[in-house]
């Protein structure tokens, strides 16, 4: 699961935390066709790995998480070439969004356009205090196409998302935090450390429980309350009669750390 553009590293006890590293520093991680392909491939492989309990999405560039689509590459595209690239790009962003375990974005520096959409596809977004985020697509004649119109609106509401998208403004980390567009701001250069800390905390808990909790939240979010409660009940049953539940109850009563079977 390693390429010249995207790397996967393992961390923690049992290597249950996977770090998905954007590694195209010479272009500030601009998403080219090749990088979209690499990201999609890496997320598919992580999604199929039952040992992964949490994922951190980070960058090798100290001043850029990801600056969005590679506009230098697209400048030479014909309309047919742009259409041909679209499925790869969608698969890359959707691959992050659909990971079955919690994903924490570690954002230091710029996260613009598609770069911010990658972060929005994560469950939690940690920013260094010098980070800058935004969806400037309308300023270059397109719209957010990596989920931004949908994910940002669900995160912060219509009017706040409308301001960010329609004005194409860039927002400092603390301003983005005030809007609810990111979840935590930490000293510059420490977003990755904090994201790994959060992921390690998540990975200590029941993998069956965490996966089912995320699935219940995702599946129930866009339904009415009654339907959402039915989704929750289905996921409760999938967890309550698992080996993890039996181990968790035993460990609690025996005052020891659980040894999760993960099934």
From TrEMBL:
This is Enoyl-CoA hydratase-related protein. Keywords: Lipid metabolism, Lyase. Signal peptide: none annotated. It holds the Pfam family ECH_1. The keyword Lyase applies. InterPro entries: ClpP/crotonase-like_dom_sf, Enoyl-CoA_hyd/isom_CS, Enoyl-CoA_hydra/iso, Enoyl-CoA_hydra_C. It comes from the Bacteria. Belongs to the enoyl-CoA hydratase/isomerase family.
């Amino acid at each position: 699961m390693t390429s010249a553009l995207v790397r996967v590293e393992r961390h923690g006890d049992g290597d249950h935390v996977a770090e998905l590293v954007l590694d195209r520093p010479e272009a500030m991680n601009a998403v080219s066709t090749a990088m979209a392909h690499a990201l999609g491939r890496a997320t598919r492989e992580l999604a199929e790995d039952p040992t992964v309990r949490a994922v951190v999405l980070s960058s090798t560039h100290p001043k850029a998480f990801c600056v969005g689509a590679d506009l230098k590459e697209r400048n030479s595209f014909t309309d047919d070439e742009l259409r041909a690239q679209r499925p790869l790009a969608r698969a890359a962003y959707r691959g992050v969004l659909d990971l079955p375990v919690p994903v924490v974005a570690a954002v230091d520096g710029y996260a613009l356009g598609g770069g911010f959409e990658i972060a929005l596809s994560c469950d939690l977004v940690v920013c260094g205090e010098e980070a800058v985020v935004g969806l400037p697509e309308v300023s270059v004649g397109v719209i957010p196409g990596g989920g931004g119109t949908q994910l940002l609106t669900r995160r912060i509401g219509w009017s706040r998302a409308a301001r960010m998208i329609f004005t194409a403004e860039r927002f400092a980390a603390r301003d983005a935090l005030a809007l609810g567009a990111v979840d935590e701001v930490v000293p510059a250069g420490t977003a990755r450390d904090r994201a790994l800390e959060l992921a390690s905390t998540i990975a200590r808990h029941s993998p069956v429980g965490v996966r089912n909790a995320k699935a219940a939240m995702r599946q129930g979010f866009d339904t009415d309350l009654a339907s959402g409660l039915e989704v929750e009940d289905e996921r409760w049953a999938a967890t309550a009669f698992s080996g993890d539940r039996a181990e968790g109850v035993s460990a609690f009563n025996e005052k020891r750390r659980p040894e999760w079977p993960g099934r």
